[in-house]
Each structure stands twice: as C-alpha cells, then as structure tokens.
Specification:
Layout: E1 12-15, H1 19-32, E2 39-42, H2 45-54, E3 59-62, E4 65-66, E5 69-70, H3 72-81, E6 87-91, H4 96-104, E7 109-112, H5 117-128, H6 136-145, H7 156-159, H8 165-175, H9 180-187, H10 191-205, H11 210-219
Parallel strand pairs: 1-2, 1-3, 3-6, 6-7
Antiparallel strand pairs: 4-5
Helix pairs in contact: 1-5, 2-3, 8-10, 8-11, 9-10
C-alpha cells in the first residue's frame, strides 16, 4: 500500500446510518493508517451538517440513502465549502440519474457497497492520492447510456484543444490514483516529463488539481 507515501487527510467524515457499514469503513480506514481519533461518524444529514460546521473535514465517505434525506446534499455542501475536499460515495444506489447528479455535484468517486473490502479499500486509497475512482458497473452504464449532450457543460474550448493520446493515457493513470513516479515508471518516462504533461492537461482543461482534471475530463467524455 505504500502508506508512508500518503498524506492522510483528517478528520474523516463517515456519513452512514448502517452501523455494520460504519464498522466496515472504520476497519478499512485503519488498514490505510488512520487512527480511531481521526473519524467523525454521522447517521443523518442534520448531524453531518453540524459536524461540518464544527470541523474542517479532510475526507468524506458518504452514503446516499439517509433517514432525513440524500447524501448528495452533503456532497454539494462540501463542494461549496472547498471543492478540493475528496469525497467518495459508497452506496447501493446505481441509477443513472443519481450517478450523474452525484458527479455534477462534485463527488470525487462513486463505488457500490456490494464490492469486496479490497476493492473499496483501493477506491479510498485512490481518492486520497488524488484519483477519482468509479465503480466498474457504473462506468459501464455511463459509457453505454450517457451522451455528451446530457452533460450540462460548455465544451467548446476543450473540443478545440483536445488532449493528446499521451495526455489521455497519463490522465487515465492519474484517475487510478497513481503517483507521478509510478506513472513515469509505468510508461518508461522521466518524472519531469510526466509533470510537464500533467501541467499541460491542467492548462487545457482549465483546472488546478488532479481531482478537477479527472472530473472535467469525465464530463467531457475524454475519460471513462
């Protein structure tokens, strides 16, 4: 896992009303290097809002179906406060409308609860490292059913300056949570070359960090 290379954002807000799922999330986070003191557990939208008002959240794991509303409300709130806060939806909901709404509201990643612990662990790790993991089933639905026209975003600038094949390749590896060093080793390029490519990607997509680059590329159909 190379935990020593990761900067663990704290505190972690776990918005989940299922106690067994709370425990599952806690165990996975501890495996990544977190301590019990790093967790804030909420079981409702109301309490999550209160916790956000009291703490500068570093990472959020969010369920959608809560007793008093949808976790999408908290995704939107966190994105308004600071769009750089990584947020991973872990839910049973896989409807096209909900998935699109979550991504548009600023969710960094989206995974289904039915996945095994190892897959969810990797998705959390990816989000922490700047990736934007999407459950394979959800990615397939997006590719099959969503047209570019369904994304409410002006694509003119990017369409006139599309990413190169190499830039798309690097951005795809970034979305998997790989570091610049790992990408360089994978492609047999220097770390400096990778950094230059990533800067060009940021410029072309008009973004300032990895999460925004992945989010924007997905909305534009440049990344699955």
């Amino acid at each position: 896992m190379e935990q020593h290379e990761m900067i663990l954002p704290t505190p972690v807000l776990v918005l989940e009303d299922d106690i067994s799922m709370q425990q599952r999330a806690e165990n996975l986070l501890i495996e990544l290097g977190y301590k019990k003191k790093d967790f804030i557990f909420s079981q409702s939208i109301q309490d999550a809002k209160y916790q956000i008002s009291q703490h500068q959240i570093g990472l959020a794991l969010i369920d959608l179906g809560l007793p008093d509303g949808s976790g999408l409300e908290i995704i939107s709130l966190l994105n308004q406060l600071n769009p750089d806060i990584p947020s991973l939806i872990i839910s049973t909901c896989n409807t096209q409308e909900t998935i699109l709404h979550a991504i548009k509201n600023g969710a960094t990643g989206y995974f289904l609860k039915e996945r095994d612990d190892f897959e969810i662990l990797l998705s959390i790790r990816s989000v922490i490292r700047g990736g934007a993991p999407i459950d394979p089933f959800i990615a397939q639905r997006i590719l099959e059913k969503i047209s570019f026209q369904s994304i409410e975003k002006d694509t003119n600038t990017v369409q006139n300056d599309l990413l190169s094949k190499r830039e798309k390749e690097i951005l795809n590896l970034v979305s998997l949570g790989m570091s610049n060093r790992e990408i360089a080793e994978s492609l047999f390029l220097s770390k400096y070359t990778i950094e230059c490519h990533i800067k060009n990607i940021y410029r072309k997509l008009s973004v300032s960090n990895r999460s925004k680059a992945i989010h924007t590329a997905r909305n534009l159909g440049l990344l699955a």
